Amino acid sequence: MSLQKQIMDKMKEAMKAKDTVALQALRAVKSAFLLAKTETGVQEELSEEQEMKIIQKQVKQRRDSAAIFIEQNRQDLADPELAELKVLEQFLPEPLTEEEIEGVVISTIDHIGASGMKDMGKVMGIVSKELAGKAEGKTISALVKKNLM
Question: CB of 48 within 8 A of CB of 3?
Fold first, then answer.
């Protein structure tokens, strides 16, 4: 089942349950899907990879907003963002542990023969593509730097 169909089903459930937080988060994702479809100008369906990127972007926005609100001691604004984040995270694959990510980074470094920080872009590109949706870019970047030094 495509992510769009899953989100529509969850929206129906949220409407029946009168879950406004879930409904708001799911509507935002649905809106982002529609926007992405119209940007391309093609009436074709979005690929699963495109759908995943849109959801990841929505999750990142919620996470960043919540962090800013918490930093400014505005827990009243952070709570709804964190609640929406939990709703959206159910559509993402299970995140990898730091050890698993490091294993992929090390094997990629060995595979392409990276020998220093000048090769960071190459390594980041390969690892980011391989771990799309399973690891945050910030974590990948820190582990690549650590292993290239």
Answer: yes
- Taking the whole predicted model, whether its pTM rises above 0.85 is answered as no
Cα–Cα distance for residue pair 117/35, rounded to 1 Å: 38
User: d(Cα 117, Cα 101) in Å, to the nearest integer?
Assistant: 18
Q: How far is CA 14 from CA 9, 25, 130, 140, in A?
A: 9, 10, 33, 34
Per-residue pLDDT of the chain (149 residues; tens, 9 = 90+): 688 889 999 999 999 999 999 999 999 999 998 888 887 666 677 888 888 888 989 999 999 999 999 999 999 999 999 999 999 989 888 878 888 888 888 888 888 887 778 888 888 888 888 887 788 888 888 888 888 87
Distance CA 130, CA 126 (A): 6
* 112's tokens: 């392409």
Cβ atoms of 45 and 33 closer than 8 Å: no
- How far is the C-alpha of 42 from the C-alpha of 149, rounded, in Å? 45
Nearest to 146 by CA among 120, 113, 110: 120
